[in-house]
Amino acid sequence: MERNIVHMDLDTFFVSCERLMHSELNGLPLIIGGTSGRGVVASCSYEARKFGVRSAMPMALAFRLCPQAKVIKGDMELYSKLSHQVTEVIQSKAPISEKASIDEFYLDISGMDKFFGCYKWTNELAQTITKETGLPISFALSINKTVSKIGTGEAKPVGRLEIKNDNVRSFLNPLSIQKIPMVGDVTFQLLSRIGIRTIQTLSEMPVDVLQQMIGKNGSEIWKKANGIDNTPVEPYSEKKSISTEHTFDKDTIDIPMLKSLIVGMVEKLAFQLRSEQWLTSTVSIKIRYNNFDTEQKQCKVAYTSCDHILITRVTELFDNLYNRRMRLRLIGIRFTGLVRGTYQIDMFEDTSERVSLYQAIDKMKNRYGFNAVMLCAGAEMKPKNKKTKIIK
Q1: Which of 40, 173, 258, 365 sits a CA distance of 20 to 30 A from 305?
Q2: How many CB atoms lie within 10 A of CB 323?
Q3: How far apart are alpha carbons 209 and 356 in whole angstroms?
Q4: CATH code at 23?
Q5: DSSP labels for 283-297?
Q6: What is the pLDDT averaged over residues 180-199?
Q7: How far apart are CA 252 and CA 109, in angstroms?
Q8: Of the given ranges (45-49, 145-149, 213-217, 346-350), which has the lowest mean pLDDT?
Q9: How far is the CA of 227 from the CAs of 15, 172, 222, 304, 315, in angstroms?
Q10: Residue numbers of the domain that contains 25
Q11: Same domain, 111 and 198
């Protein structure tokens, strides 16, 4: 049976959410992001993109390119709420769906062509989403995730595209290699220097040569260039969580040590979130006293995977929770309500320097190990009896 995989993407999601609440913003060049000159662009409207404004761009540069743009700080609570509404519509109708990020979805509707016609069914779903939520959405239908995702990018804004099996190569071949997921700026520049700029040229390149040039991801990029992707659509569940616990060898009441431990635990979990491209919306902390009484607190946060945000919230929870002045035997931290995404999308008040710092730190940790770079507060104590796990 031929696979039928849909990629759906909410068009300029943050911008669309703001315009849904404030119709006077329609048609204006709009930038969502840090309101200070040193912030970064989280999202921008197509009107602003015509001037060269792009996501993750320093706000100062965006101002110079489009000084007439309307700038809004952003409201992650609103964006999360509307994202949940879209998710509920999709899950109520699609047989298998995966929430890839706050504004992206994959659907496996293989076999439905026998009953409805896959393109017709998907088009009706897109219309239903817009009718029930007011948000514009684009989609592409094809044989796998890679081709569908590239197709959605070509279909925007508010586009509908079907790429059948026989047309995959003719669709992909003329496109830039930058359209391929996994091909970033560094890889693009490397391949461009040897004349590889289109997907067709890349697909005809010997795979072993590509691996020698760019490493272990070479074969995956080659497969994508040839329209090969067997990755399944993984059913989305917000019950997935990531957590860590530490049991003390000796019960303690050492507050500075406990807070240092919390910093280290959060830092490690946040790094894992970013490495696996997760964002969390709920954080909780658990403590167990030496008499085995166990207490916990949790709070909602705007979707994030940033150390500095999560450390602040978890530390606040600990201060509110730990008030009995008894010795502790265990402390645990848990992040839940996970969705796919990268940490840049919620850094409305962060500077471009901080974004670059996170990227540099993560690069060093990935290369040399987590302990290669740590916050001073978290490095003061390295617990030995700690375990990290992902649970469903």
Answers
A1: 258
A2: 8
A3: 31
A4: 3.40.1170.60
A5: EEEEEEETT--EEEE
A6: 91
A7: 55
A8: 346-350
A9: 32, 8, 9, 32, 47
A10: 13-75
A11: yes
Give the model confidence (pLDDT) of 289-328 as tens digits.
988 889 999 999 888 888 888 999 999 999 999 988 899 9
Do residues 340 and 246 both lie within one domain? Answer: yes
Q: What average pLDDT score do residues 361-365 get?
A: 69
Q: Which position among 18, 98, 104, 220 bears the catalytic label?
A: 104
∠ CA 336-337-339 to the nearest 5 degrees?
120
Question: Do you find a cis peptide bond into 174, omega within 30 degrees of 0?
Answer: no
Query: Model's pTM, two decimal places?
Result: 0.70
Q: Does the pLDDT at position 57 exceed 90? A: no
* Predicted pLDDT at 238: 53
- The fraction of the chain above a pLDDT of 70, given in percent, is 85
d(CA 177, CA 199) in angstroms, rounded, equals 5
The verdict on 252 and 315 lying in the same domain is yes
Active site residue 276: no
Domain shared by 353 and 250, yes or no: yes
Q: Does residue 59 sit in the same domain as residue 119?
A: no
Asked if 263 and 375 touch (Cβ cutoff 8 Å), the reply is yes
Report the pLDDT value the prediction gives residue 233, as an integer from 0 to 100: 93
Residues 184 and 279 grouped into a single domain: no
Give domain status of residue 235, yes or no: no
Q: Which of 225, 249, 273 is the last residue of a domain?
A: 225
Residue 220 lies in a domain: yes
